[in-house]
Amino acid sequence: MSDLARAASSVSVNGIFQRAFRIFADRVAVTSGDESWTYAELGERAERLAAALWALGVRKGDRVAVLSETRPEYVQAYAALARLGAVVLTLNIRLHPDEIAWCVEHGRPKAVITSGGMRHLLDGVRGGARVETWICMEDGIDGDLSFSELEGGNHPEPPEVEIEGADIHNILYTSGTTGRPKGAMISQAAAAIRGQRLAQWFSLTADDGFVGWLPLFHCGGDESLYATTMTGGTYAALSKADPVRMFEAIERHRLSWTLLLPGVITEFLRHPRRGEYDLSSLRFAIGYANMAPHVVAELTRELGIGFFDAFGQTESSYLLAHGYSGPGEMPSLRKVPSPLMEVRIVDSSMNEVPVGVPGECVVRGPSVMSGYLDDAAATAEAFQGGWLHTGDVLVRHVDGALSFVDRKKYLIKTGGENVYPAEVEQAINSHPAVQEACVFGVPDERWGETPKAVVVVRPGVSLTRQEVAAWCRERLAGYKRPRYVEFATADDLPRSTTGKLQRHILAERGSRDEEAV
Q1: Bridge pairing between strands 183-187 and 210-212
Q2: Which of 143, 217, 322, 501 has its CA 20 to 30 A from that of 513?
Q3: How far, in Å, CA of 35 to CA of 13, rounded?
Q4: What is the CA radius of gyration of the chain?
Q5: DSSP symbol at 351
Q6: Which residues of 343-379 are buried (b: 16+ CB within 10 A; e: fewer)?
Q7: What is the pLDDT of residues 110-128, one digit of tens each?
Q8: For the chain, what are the domain ranges?
């Protein structure tokens, strides 16, 4: 392909934003509390910030780190950096300061943008990192430039930047549960296709607004932002998943969709003030149905909405495959692969396994990441055989639908048998008294390893270890049944920013004699 043809056929995130600024100019683009910006206003703010960053020397391909809660200024930064073709190096606010410092040192950003509330997390970095410019979204922070200073600087308009689809748009750091976080590089084309896929799959229009509590340093947050921007909807930027603020935003702006992940979904559903708000504009939610199927059915019945059961990951898009359940329906946990994604279920030699046999899910398609930043070994491992290895074990059904089994790394080996924790969790979660369960392996002198379950009981009901054991005995093979059961509250469970239980932390508790069943 010639250079001219390549330029003419390229797609960019800046193109998504610029189109929206023109054709949805008077519509509300982003809101937070009492503050709202139209698409025209967001475009003007982003252009002024882009001009200031250009004046500071930020150029195409330079990395600019952002450490902030979800807020309108984060959206503004995304749009401004997309205008320059700069790479957004996203930092997870829930990482330990030492991990954040490592990401900054690893990512080598030219500038760092923080919110006032998150700025202290970088105190240990400022002396050593080779960062040219420190920027704070708020005014009055000693030593940092502020957004208002940058926007008011009367800088000349930056030149148009030629951006190609293969150029890197952002770097999303993985959670790092088994080592240092890895920086997944997402190209301009991949980011745009992720947004377009959501817009098409969920039939989004300008009347669809998103409850954006999920962080913008996570694929669930940024992909939903692009889909909302493409279709002219409103993105409600919430700093955290506070149910009352979510209710208020839905009622005020007639928002129609959001992600309701474990932990958040139960607080949203059972909050005592939910009935005070008009939530009739909400038409669907997205989440992990296998973790709490009864809760999902209760949610859809109570609110009269649909639910998309998610399967995806940072490296490929959070819309790799989804299932759907209507109001009051129990989720089937069968998922249909999304458009423009090839999916195979393979064994360790990359041979396709038969229908119904568990195997690793490998994928390829235009939304797949471009590799891990400065980590050739991890990139080579992830792309063995020319396919992205998800690390997830799935089964394929005759009709092509997929069912999630578990993460490969969570496999429990007990007495020579393989136990997938998710299968045990699904059995326990089917008990009407259970709100949530997490299963993992603990050391066992006889079997080497044996399953343990941590169980959260639904409010207002009771459950004993013996009842859990009896329930599992009727539904699982003997070697799959948990030998230890611990009860906990939802607040006691460690979670990632997306609400997923961090079982590696729970596993550190080990087992106690009084938990044996």
Answers
A1: unpaired
A2: 501
A3: 25
A4: 23
A5: P
A6: bbbbeeeeeebeeeebbbbbbbbbbbbbbbbebeebb
A7: 999 999 999 999 988 887 7
A8: 10-240, 311-408, 416-515
